[in-house]
Amino acid sequence: MKPRFILILLLLLVFWAGLAWWLFRTNSATNPPVAAEHGMDKTMGDNSSTGASSGNSADLKAAVLSALELPAGPHRLEATLAAFERWVKAYPDEAMTWGEDNFEGKERLGGLNAGIADWAAQDPAGAAKWVEGMAPDASAADTVVSLLDVWAKRDGNAAAQWLLTVTNPVQREQGLEALANTWSKANPAAATQWAWQYFTEAQDSTAFQAALGNWVQTDALSAASFVERLPAGDTQNIAINNLALQWAAVDPLSASTWAAALNDPRQRDEALVNVVDSWAEWEPTKAAVAIGSLNDPDTQQAATAALVGRWVDSDAVAASAWINQQTDGEMKDTAITTFSNGLFYDDPTTSLNWALAISDPDQRSEQLTTLGSAWLNYDPATAQDWINAHMPAEIKNQLLSTGDNNPSNNSNNSPIETPPEPELGPVPQTGPNIITAPEPDQPANPATEPAPDTGVIN
Predict the structure, then answer these.
(1) Would you say the C-alpha torsion 372, 457, 299, 289 has a positive or negative sign?
(2) pLDDT given at position 427
(3) DSSP 295
(4) 95, 251, 263, 455: least CB-packed within 10 angstroms?
């Protein structure tokens, strides 16, 4: 091939390449990108809050409005949030103010939460200042949580200091838990220390319980060491009880070993009761075995009440079988009383049959009177028939002699107004096959001493 021919081909290639580049630049200048308007600009999220972006605020707002024209539903929500987050990242104050004034429904909650999280990732102090000006409604409380979820990962101390300036009680309460949860996952020791200090000053344990719970999940021994070094007093006792509850939910055997080794007798007993209470929610049969290792009678009774109170909700048949296997005495009476309370609103007849089996006469009389009175209040006809047939004479006379409890004395036949139900523990969900209560045996035993205040935090 001749050199001249090759030179001509090269010149032609250069000419056509230059022409193509010129046409591309001309088209770009006369038709600016419209991707932002249609929610397709993927680079907008990297721009700073000064508004330096490939689209101005009006274009980004137009993209949000365009997304809101879609039919309502998950697709519109997703498109709206994507467009709004791009606007917030470029012009946070303007976008968030518009969102607060114009969004509604799920777009309002989702948009404000996502937007404040994006803003906090760039400028948490600026985002916090904007949140302070929000109207105190549900979206404001949720937005505080979203702000702190991001801020606490970066600087828990700064986030905590800001939260202390929040005066709205709902925002502060929800913010405390969010702060503690997020901060304690990043730095459990610092978060728990701060939360404990707040607890001692404000008498609010919300943040402390959340932070301590997360610390137990990752390093229970360090959390226990922290709690044991706290100044002696009520706050330390509460901290120990919280630790016992939350540790037992993770590792009940280790928690019970730790609790049993505590030097202070009261702290040891209360911690063991809390271990049993938490353990019983997951493995009641193993928690029941642990009760047998408790030496103090009052602690054993308190732990029994905690165990049966949980067990009757999850498996009343198994709980009743365990109670029937126990030796007559104070612990069994405590178990029967707790079990009877748990059954009452689902099956008052079985509940009262169990109450008849309480061996201590004073405790039995008190339980029958309490349950019988409650039954007469909400189902007087059925209750009166059963009481007439089964109640001891002195209790029957006491219950049925009260005019308000006797349906025959309701001369105007007006409906009997039902008072609030007595606090007998949570309403259980039991099946019909409850093991029959033991035959009542009524020796004249001395009255049972009341169980101690266990300090259980539910």
Answers:
(1) positive
(2) 33
(3) -
(4) 263
pLDDT exceeds 70 at position 270: yes
| Cα–Cα distance measured from residue 414 to residue 370, given in angstroms and rounded to the nearest whole number | 25
Is 95:63 a contact under the CB 8 Å cutoff?
no
Residue 179 near residue 152 (C-beta atoms within 8 A): yes
For tokens 């939910």, what's the residue?
A: 249
What is the predicted pLDDT for the residue at 172?
86
CA distance 205 to 388: 49
Looking at the predicted structure, is the pLDDT value of residue 457 above 70?
no
**Within 13 A of 422's CA, how many CA atoms are on the CB side?**
16
DSSP string, 126-174: HHHHHHHTS-SSHHHHHHHHHHHHHHHHH-HHHHHHHHTT---HHHHHH
- CA 336, 340, 343, 347 torsion-angle sign: positive
How much is the mean pLDDT over the chain? 81
Alpha-carbon distance of 21 to 395, in angstroms, equals: 103
Which pLDDT belongs to residue 4?
62
d(CA 207, CA 245): 16
**Residue boundaries of the structural domains of the chain:** 269-407+419-458
Alpha carbon distance 257, 275 (integer Å): 10
Residue 37 gets which letter from DSSP? G
